[in-house]
Design a protein that fits this description.
single chain, mainly alpha, two-stranded antiparallel ribbon, 6 helices, 2 strands, 56% helix
Length: 111
């Protein structure tokens, strides 16, 4: 899906960010890669049991396409793959960790 770079009218930087991290699972994938470092597909799936294999695969492909994560394939049988944040992806760390803090506070306040 092609991304748009907006002409910086009010609100557009947020819209640009949301294009990259929106969706139910992208921010969660980024969060786990921040916390765990490199992750294999099955490891991510275990960390996100409510995300189907198909959806996880789709979200990973989009994050790769957007240069947020990279995929490394190791020559073995069966092939092993590992996912990690790119330099660009690592710049999302403060944002995602603030989302974590906000979510923890919200969950605490709204039990």
């Amino acid at each position: 899906m092609p991304r748009h770079i907006y002409d910086c009218s009010e609100g557009c930087p947020v819209e640009s960010t949301l294009q990259i991290i929106s969706g139910k699972w992208k921010s969660v994938i980024i969060y786990h890669l921040i916390k765990e470092g490199n992750c294999r597909f099955n490891q991510l799936q275990k960390l996100m049991p409510n995300c189907s294999r198909r959806m996880l695969s789709l979200q990973l492909k989009e994050l790769i396409s957007d240069h947020i994560i990279s995929k490394t394939t190791f020559p073995s049988v069966p092939p092993k793959t590992s996912y990690s944040l790119t330099q660009l992806g690592k710049t999302l760390t403060p944002l995602i960790l603030e989302m974590e803090k906000w979510g923890e506070q919200y969950n605490k306040d709204h039990k």
